[in-house]
Design goal:
Blueprint (H helix, E strand, L loop, with lengths): L1 H26 L3 H31 L4 H37 L1
Helix pairs in contact: 1-2, 2-3
Length: 103
């Protein structure tokens, strides 16, 4: 019974953060703020949903699934790296665009 409440809380908590990140993607004014909002919020939201999945599989099968652990590791490594590379590319593109305007 307690596990079911914990799983439900984690799913709702994660869904709320994913929703906030998605709204941030649609509503924020420029590329850099649009990049910051979803990467932080959705990483935490998806982490909570995956934690709920790990907790549920541990309660049902008796042991946590290694698939969920691999997914969470992949998520927490790739999301910040991809956001960093996107921001570097956007900054380089802004610098090239402003250099073109100066000519």
């Amino acid at each position: 019974m307690i596990v079911e409440y914990a799983v439900a809380f984690l799913v709702l908590f994660g869904a709320a953060f994913v929703l906030v990140g998605s709204i941030g993607l649609a509503r924020l004014p420029d590329f850099f703020t649009r990049l910051h909002g979803p990467t932080k919020a959705t990483t935490l939201g998806l982490g909570a949903v995956i934690a709920a999945s790990i907790l549920h599989s541990a309660a049902v099968a008796g042991a946590p699934s290694l698939k969920e652990l691999a997914i969470s590791l992949f998520l927490f490594i790739t999301a910040p790296v991809s956001a960093h590379l996107l921001s570097k590319a956007a900054k380089r593109g802004d610098a090239a665009a402003s250099a073109d305007r100066a000519d």
